[in-house]
Specification:
By secondary structure, the protein is an alpha+beta fold. The protein has helices spanning about 55-70, 80-100, 110-130, 145-165, 165-180, and strands at about 10-15, 20-30, 35-40, 45-50. A 4-stranded antiparallel sheet has the order 1-2-3-4, with no helix packed on it.
């Protein structure tokens, strides 16, 4: 039986906060497992946690992410995982659009045009449905509707990032508000 692939790496991160000692985190992975050491800078040395090679890395990653998200949610002003993910992905989307010539230096893009391009992606999603929602011709592991809606979100992220609009935060605020609204928002449809 073949042993599962174990990537080998060693990474160190240093985290700073005003008035607090630096926290140094070291993560090591090799054939024997995963080791995490956290040195709080308090003179007590690092606290070390070892996970054996048999540890399911996906489950460990998800468990640690859960812990980080849960602890982070108690820190005033910390962005939610959704907002952090959106900001990162929007920055990537905008950079790709710039790299592909859609944001030429010194040329201002028109907001109306950009919104119409977003709308056109939604219309293409409708057309995909009207034609039975076949696999997309560029990424066939997804349906036409899935990829056209993805294109719409990518364009929204690109525009929002370029303009500094806080769309992810607005999504969270609007969802929270919508949870308080009446059934069908008090309308018939």
């Amino acid at each position: 039986m073949n042993a599962p692939y174990t990537p080998e790496f060693a990474q160190t991160g240093v985290f700073q906060a005003d008035g607090h000692p630096d926290v140094t985190v070291r993560l090591i992975s090799d054939a024997s497992g995963i080791g995490i050491s956290v040195d709080y800078g308090d003179g007590n040395g690092p606290q070390i946690t070892d996970y054996p090679a048999s540890t399911n890395r996906l489950q460990l990653a998800e468990a640690l992410q859960f812990a980080a998200d849960t602890i982070g949610s108690t820190v005033p002003g910390r962005l939610s995982p959704f907002v952090r993910g959106w900001i990162s992905t929007a920055a990537d989307s905008h950079q790709n659009a710039k790299d592909k010539g859609f944001w030429e230096p010194g040329v201002e893009r028109n907001n109306g045009e950009m919104l119409c391009l977003i709308h056109s992606e939604i219309s293409e999603a409708l057309e995909a449905l009207r034609h039975g929602n076949p696999p997309d011709d560029k990424v066939p592991e997804f349906s036409g509707v899935e990829t056209e809606l993805a294109d719409a979100v990518i364009r929204i992220m690109d525009l929002a990032h370029a303009r500094g609009w806080r769309v992810a935060q607005a999504i969270e605020a609007k969802m929270k508000f919508n949870a308080t609204r009446a059934y069908k928002h008090g309308k018939e449809f």
